[in-house]
Amino acid sequence: MQDPVVLVEFLLRGAAIGALAATGFAFVRSSVQASLRIAGALFFLSTIAYVVNSSPELREMPGLYGGPVLLLSLGGAGYFWLFVITLFQDRPTSLPLFVPAALLTMVGFVGIATDPPVRNGVWIAHNVIELAFALHALYVIYDSWRGDLVEARRRLRGPFLGIVTLYVMIMSFIEIGESVGIQAWWYSLVGGGIMASFCLAGSFVFLEIRTAIFGRAEPAGPAPLDAPSIDPADRITLEKLSQAMDKGAAWKDENLTIGTLAEKVGVPEHRLRRLINDNLGHRNFAAFVNTRRIEAAKQMLADPAQSRTTVAAVAFDLGFGSLGPFNRAFKEATGKTPTQWRRDTLENGSPKPETSG
Description:
- The protein has 357 residues and is an all-alpha fold.
- 70% of the residues lie in helices and 0% in strands.
- Helix 2 (34-53) crosses helix 4 and helix 2 packs antiparallel against helix 5 (76-88).
- The longest helix is centred in the middle third of the chain and has 29 residues, at 151-179.
- The chain starts with a helix and ends in a 9-residue tail after the last helix.
């Protein structure tokens, strides 16, 4: 404890834990959607656990190692992945999304239970899996960037992508080095410094633009076009948008992007993005387009005359590039797979739903 390096490391990790605790407490008390609140709570708790568990000195302190701290830290990269998916893709939490955290936790326990040299191999595998999920999370942040309709969240993506990429690369190399027996006195100190910097920066971002980034507890409904709060110029643009999406069936285009739709409507991309977010209540472009696609799919699946049309044919006809995204979007909207929904609807003789206008 008298070693200056250890004292500095403790201060850095203490700053990281304090920033995470304060941010996490504010986050879970905010009005974000329940799915994001759950994912955020697990992310903040697992990151705090990792800050503790990654320090040899802190692990030796009574009461800090083992139990919830160990459990949460082992699956930390999985909880980070879950948080990214729910935050940047606006997806609700479901059991399959917890698989990465569960997998990492199980592999970690295998590493604890085995003896060297098998243990070293297991921990290397654990670190590689962590890196894989972290890289996929970064891909999700980049891939959904263009379709993000929340301006504050779009501005966050660049810095977030850069900081997390640097953090993941440095920490992964350090952990893999430790797993193969490479030791350096500055490993833990550098790790503490990176954690403190990342956590303090993240807390600042959250406190500055948390409402715009994390959204409301419930998605806003579309505002009527004749609402007095809508600017006359915006009202005209929204009418053009409605014509392009409904009469022009732009949503059937598999390659439709916010940019190509803005060209059809005749407005700059950033303005169309703001109008869809502010007036129609959508936080990402895919959700906006899929609303019409899913309603049309429900109409086709409920039609006895089209009962022999395959689900894949329905998906491709409505603009989905593959069956997987269609099944996921349909289940998120209805709670059932397309096949289940068609069977239940046809068996119950329910009337065909009207396509939303």
